[in-house]
Task: structure prediction
Amino acid sequence: MRLTLRTLLSYLDDTLEPAEARLMGEKVAESELAQELIERIKKVTRRRGLSAPPVSGDDGDAATDPNSVAEYLDNALAADQLEEIEQSALDSDAHLAEVATCHQILTLVLGEPAKIPPTARQHMYRLVKGKGSIPYRKPATSLNVAGLADPTPVAEDSTEADEALLLGLGGTRLSVPIVGVLVTLLLLIVVIWMALPAAKLAPTQGYVSVPLNRPAPIEPKAKKPEIDKGSPKVDTPPEDTKLAKKIKDDQETVTLPEVLPPPRVFVTKRMLAPPVDPDLERRAIGRFESKDSLLLQRKRSTDEWERAVPLKELYSNDSLMCLPGIRAEIKLESGVRLLLWGTLPEYHMIDVQDLLESRVTLHPPAGSIDADLTLQSGRIYISPPTPKGERFEPVTVRVRFKEEIWDVTLLDPDSEVSVELFGGYAEGVAFSPEPGGPSPTTEVYLALLKGRADVHYKFKEFLMLDAPVRIDWNSKTQEESAPEKIPERHLEWWSKAIKDNPGSVQMSAAASHYAGRLSKQDDARIDVMFYSAMQDKKENLARRLYAARCLQALDAIEYLADSLAEDMFHLRAAGIRSVRHWTGLAPDRDLKFFNVLTGKKAYEPAHATVVMQLLHPFSKQQYARQEIIATLFESMKHERPAIRELAYGHLLQSDSEGAREVGFIDVTAPENIRDVQLQKWKASWKKRFVDDK
Result:
C-alpha cells in the first residue's frame, strides 16, 4: 500500500483493514512528511472562518470540480487527475480541509445508518405535490427503505416517539422511570451479594488466576483401523494426523458461520502453583539425552565439576553446565525438553555481550508445574514433550533467575521458548574495593520462537502470545517490558545455525577436541586441563583461546587471571573479555577477582585497583575528558602487561582514528619500540583534540 493523501485519510478515519492499518502506521512513523501532514489536517479541519474553495468545473480544473473530488474520494478518478487534486490539497488549506472533512462525513454516513423518525418520513412524502401524489398517504409496505419494516403509526402532533428514536431509546419517555426502578433493584442486589462473606480462595501466585474459557479439546477417534495380518504393512498415521483429518471432516459436514475462527485444539491448564522457594530434595529428575555431547555437573556439596554420563539420570539441585560452543539436551520426567546452548562470539558475529556457557539448576516441580529450574547464565531452549499419538496437553515451566519467578505455559506441540541471561557493568560505573559497591546490570530475554504460550510473572499475565515475540527484563530498573514482536532481521540472534567463517570453524574444532578429551578422562581435573592448554605455547591459538573462555565458566579465576599477562595479544584480549563476562554475572564477583589479584597473584592493592577500574567500561563523557586520555597514555608505560593491555583497549575505543595512524601496538614489545608509537599517537591525539580547542 502506497502512502498517498487518500490512504492517509483512510488511516485517520479508521476505514482500513487491520493489516493495512498496521502497515500504514509503520510508514507514517517512518515519514516526517506524513506526520506533518497529519498535524496540518487536524488544524485545517478545526479552523474557523476558513473559506470554501471555488466550485467550478468549466475550466477543466479537477480540484474545483465537485464531481472530480467525489470520484477521488471514491477511488474512481483517473490516474492523470489524481496528482492534480492531491497537489492542490497540499498547496491550499481550503482544498485540504474540503477533502478531509468530506472523507470524514462519508465515513460517518456510510458507517452508521441514519435514524429517520416516523413523523419525519410522513412529512417527506407530503413535500411531493405532483400527479399521482396523495399528501396524506402512508408509504406502502412494498416500498420499505433499506429493508426496514414500517414504523408503528403515531399521532401527527406527537414528537415523543421521534425524540426517543433519535436518542436511541426505542420507546417513549414512560420507559425511563421503569428502567430507573430496575437499575435501582439491580444495584441493591449487588450490594447485598457483596456484603455476604466470601468463600476462601485457594493460594495463588500473588494474584487470582482464573481458568481461561478456551474451547473444549476435540477428542481423536479411539478406534484404530484394523489391518489384516496377511496384508502388506500399512503405516498408521500418527494421532495428530488423525485429529487433523477429523477436524477437516467435521468442517466439511457442518456449515459454520464465516465469523467463527478455526477450531484450536488444546486443554485448559489447571491453577498454577504459588511461587515458593525451590524444593532442596536431591532426586532423579531427568536424563541426559545427547549421546555424543558433553554436559558437566556439580553437586551442591562439592566445588568440582565432573562429566555427566550420557543417557543416564540427572539429579535435582545439582548445577548443570554446557561449556561454550557445546550443546546438550535434557529430557525431564514430565517430558519437557531443555536444550542447554553454549555459544561463542565467532558463531554469530553480532556485537553484543557474550553468552558463552549455559548453566542451570533443576528443581523438583511442585503442584501443577511441569518443570522448575533456575537459570544462572547463558541460553536455554524449552520445548514441550514430543507427541506420541495421545492428546497434547499444555505444560508449564517455572523459570527462576535472580529474585524473579516466571511461569511459561507452552500451548502447542511445536512451541519453543528461549531464555537467556547475561550481565555486565554499565558505562561509567566505577569499581569499589569496599563490599556493597555498584552491582552489574543483568539482562534477561525471553523469546517465544515457535507456536503459542502464556507468560505469568508477579501480578502480570500475557495470554495466547503468538511467535515470534519477546519479553525483556533488566535488573537496573527491576522492570520487564511488555511483549513485543521480534522483527525478522533480529531472529538471527536466536538462530541455531553457526556462521560459516574461519573463526567459527576453528573454535568449533577446538570445542570438539576438548569434548572428546573430557569424555575419555573421567578422573582428570577439568580446570587443570584447560589451564595447561592455555599456557601451552605449542598448542594452536584457537584451543588456547577456547581454554581461557572455559576457565571462567568453571569459576577457575585464579588460573584465568594469568591470561591477562599472556604472551599473545589475542590471548590477553580473550582473557580480558572472559573476566568481564564472569564479573558481570553477580555483584560480588568484582571484589572476588580483586582479592585474587592482591592475594594469589601478589598484585599491589594500587595496581589491582587500576586493573579493576580499567575492566569497567568508560562512558563517552569520560572519553571526552583530556585528563583521562592522558592517564591512559601514561598507563601504556606501566610495569604490568595487564594494565598496559587494558589501557590500550580503552585508547582504541576513544580514538580509533589515531590508532589507525600508528598501527597495532604490542604491549609486550620492547619499551623503546612502544615509546615511538605512543609518542606519535599522543601527538596526533593532542593535535586533534587539544590544540583545536
